[in-house]
Amino acid sequence: MAEERIVRVGTRKSQLALIQTTSVIQKLKALDPSLKFETVPMTTTGDRILDSALSKIGEKSLFTKELETALLKKQVDFVVHSLKDLPTILPDGLVIGCVCKRDSPYDAVVMHPKYRGKTLKDLPPGSVIGTSSLRRAAQIQRMYPQFKIESIRGNLNTRFQKLAEQDTYDAIILAVAGLERMGWHEWISQVLTPEECMYAVSQGAMAVECRADDDAALSCPPACSFGMVHEGGCSVPVSVFTEVSKSQLTLRGGVFSIDGTQAVQHTVVASLDDQDFLKSEHSSFVGIYCQTPANRHQYSSAWAAGERLADDMIALGAEAILAAAKAETKKELIKEHEKKGQHNMTNQAGSSVLAD
């Protein structure tokens, strides 16, 4: 009798990550009930370092590196990510095998219990808004200059605890998709419109990352990947808004200074003649073709729209704003490292005195 094969699935340890991973496993089981799975939870750099804003940690792939290392070492068979956490370029030998149908990409406001049911415009001047994302911080500061933006770190459970138990934040900004997956929809006081805060590229989607040389376990119907030249993520104030209506794609991008005072926003509209893309809208699984330029011709109109948007925004000055934002972030990062270095020296000196 052949030994039963167990598919090992890498994931972060947070409750939300485990919920997302379970959701993907259930979809795979529905396609092939004979498959058996084992979840392998791991702690990433972003999970360990909670006393600094994401932009001040100075590492790339904050929530993916450890998972990808385990994948390359064949300690797991595939890993599940929030797609927005993945870097623009994946490590050699890894690809995105498929992406689940996207949930809501929007951001939400969760109020301190004393303000529950209110919206941002109802808060008094000087209110403190918590977020770990430069993208959200820049746009909220731009829209509501009367507020103070403070970093808040940790998984969703930790952030909710900090909001409720610490008298620090009047509201925090989180992804709608994460709140809904946790079953916490009732805590959403306000869903932010694109005019208030455009979302991150790929926000609301879950991705399955696997080894490029593995045989595919299942065949996923194709869809379109929208590519932007700008490097996104929580550590860079880059945002997007997309809308598909019939056979037309509207793609709007935004690049902001860290304080929100400068911005380049631009919109492109393209006709979609990719029938496979339009059909895939109704599928529970859709494929995404990252790092496979040969496949892009299948979705040329959408790819061209994303590239045109990036080119237009660069021409309008987005690159200069982004460069300044990265320089400011780097300066803050150096200060953070120097501060921690002095703190460590003080602790070492204190330990030495106690030892004496």
From TrEMBL:
Pfam families: Porphobil_deam, Porphobil_deamC. Residues 7-217 form the Porphobilinogen deaminase N-terminal domain. The keyword Transferase applies. Transmembrane segments: none annotated. One of its GO terms (cellular component) is cytoplasm. Residues 231-267 form the Porphobilinogen deaminase C-terminal domain. Gene3D superfamilies: Periplasmic binding protein-like II, Porphobilinogen deaminase, C-terminal domain. GO terms for biological process: heme biosynthetic process. Its EC number is 2.5.1.61. Residues 336-356 are annotated as: Disordered. Its cofactor is dipyrromethane. It comes from the Eukaryota. This is hydroxymethylbilane synthase. Residues 343-356 have a biased composition (Polar residues). PANTHER family: PORPHOBILINOGEN DEAMINASE (PTHR11557:SF0). Belongs to the HMBS family. Keywords: Porphyrin biosynthesis, Transferase. GO terms for molecular function: hydroxymethylbilane synthase activity.
